[in-house]
Amino acid sequence: MENLIDNGTFISQVERPNSSLPTVIVIGGGISGLAAARRLNDASFKVILLESRDRLGGRIHTDHSFGYPVDLGASWLHGVCNENPLAPLIRGLGLKLYRTSGDNSVLYDHDLESYTLFDKEGHKVPQQMVIEVGDAFKRILDETEKVRDEHTDDMSVLQAVSIVLDRHPELRQEGLAYEVLQWYICRMEAWFAADADMISLKSWDQASGLFDFLHLLVLLDMQEQVLSGGHGLMVQGYDPIIKALAKDIDIRLNHRVAKISNGPNKVMVTVEDGTGFIADAAIITVPLGILKANLIQFEPKLPQWKVDAISDLGFGSENKIAMQFDKVFWPDVEFLGVVAPTSYACGYFLNLHKATGHPVLVYMAAGRFAHDLEKLSDEPAANFVMSQLKKMFPNATEPVQYLVTRWGTDPNSLGCYSYDLVGKPGDSYERLRAPLGNLFFGGEAVSMEDHQGSVHGAYSSGIMAAENCQTHILERLGYFDKLQLVPSRGEIHDAAFPLQISRM
Ligand SMILES: Cc1cc2nc3c(=O)[nH]c(=O)nc-3n(C[C@H](O)[C@H](O)[C@H](O)COP(=O)(O)OP(=O)(O)OC[C@H]3O[C@@H](n4cnc5c(N)ncnc54)[C@H](O)[C@@H]3O)c2cc1C
């Protein structure tokens, strides 16, 4: 440790890893940062991971206060197949998945027969209507593709839907069926964590769109581009993966990064209390919300193209209210939904009892509604959810305990996941992902083409950033002449891993 003056700012202490090995600072202890740190650590780099919270996992947060695991952030694995980059880890740890749907489309991440919809008066919506409106919704989305082809200017998905309904009055729904259509739109909005009037028609199903809702839904014949295997809930929560990745990494919790100075040969990262860390390179995996809010100062300033990339993407909100009851009073289905005249007013509950055997319902809200829900304190939020539940089940008992998330205002996330804003260039993710000197960018918002917004996408982006960083450092420091490299592709538990980098 030493003291120094950095550009006029007093840095209280500087930690310079005492290492002859290449050194990397990873910023953010979510799945992306942990994947990057793990990869570099296993490749014999000296790694320090700085995390602002007092826990690891970021938007993966498995809570145990009910006495068993409940995921308050991510809970599904999308793409239950061997090609999923998380598959080796899940298999290696022996984690159980409860498959909610074998369908690869996002709309049907739960099989239709596994959920039950109610109207606001608590009457069950006939299942036949749910299926018919679902089919109509698919056709509407198909038709929006034609609208896009006809227009050079971008528009919102909602505008495109309204054009389609003008052209095809037979797809319009009336009365209760209209409310079911709104429910489908509500479910779709959850995938972008944003309302349909905010989502770009141009980009939403393009290669750089968030988890490719329409790739999955409409372009089902192009399934080779997306992971197959449907969707599964992580029965023990995502937490064991976080713990496994974090093993033996030098992790500093409660270290909120305030400044990153990118020098020609070194990077200096300064945390809130003034402590500085110096390394050969840094990998930044903080959520897009943090970058958007300029909570980290960059020295030199980020170039305009990077600033534009950050502002060209939206960062939406989704919140969960998990409720533990003393006994189950709801039907044995996976999903319980309330339909309404607007998607804003629709709602749904995940029945965790089905997957885990525990009497827990998780209410989920996305987009503007999620923002509005965050304005309520815990008790009114829980009361609101209970009022929804009581519409369906007038005899619902009060919860024993509940947990309320506020991902949108949490200073460590400031949102949930990213989406393409209307009218912005479609290459925002690529620009966001591009390295800057000794800085590398991972994280959910800069993940591989078709996996934004997912845990496995964030994991892949961390691995990618680590690989790019590794190559950069080794080339810059001339280590390629001195080191024997084993090819770096491969999963953590594959035979090819860990990388063997040995000095000659
Ligand atoms: C409610 C919700 C439900 C979701 N559901 C699913 C799902 O079912 N399936 C799925 O695949 N995906 C889901 N996701 C998305 C998934 O959780 C994310 O894509 C993924 O976890 C992001 O990982 P990450 O490492 O990129 O970011 P994060 O997990 O956000 O990690 C970034 C880390 O950076 C830290 N940090 C922030 N600022 C600083 C700073 N200044 N200094 C140091 N550290 C800092 C944060 O505390 C955080 O730990 C969901 C997300 C949410 C919020």
From TrEMBL:
Substrate binds at residue 363. FAD binds at residues 32, 257. Its cofactor is FAD. Residues 31-468 form the Amine oxidase domain. Gene3D superfamilies: 3.90.660.10, FAD/NAD(P)-binding domain (3.50.50.60). Pathway: Amine and polyamine degradation; spermine degradation. InterPro entries: Amino_oxidase, FAD/NAD-bd_sf, Flavin_amine_oxidase, Flavin_monoamine_oxidase. One of its GO terms (cellular component) is peroxisome. Keywords: Oxidoreductase. The keyword Oxidoreductase applies. Coiled coil: none annotated. One of its GO terms (biological process) is polyamine catabolic process. One of its GO terms (molecular function) is polyamine oxidase activity. PANTHER family: FLAVIN MONOAMINE OXIDASE, POLYAMINE OXIDASE 4-RELATED. Belongs to the flavin monoamine oxidase family. This is Amine oxidase domain-containing protein. It comes from Salix dunnii.
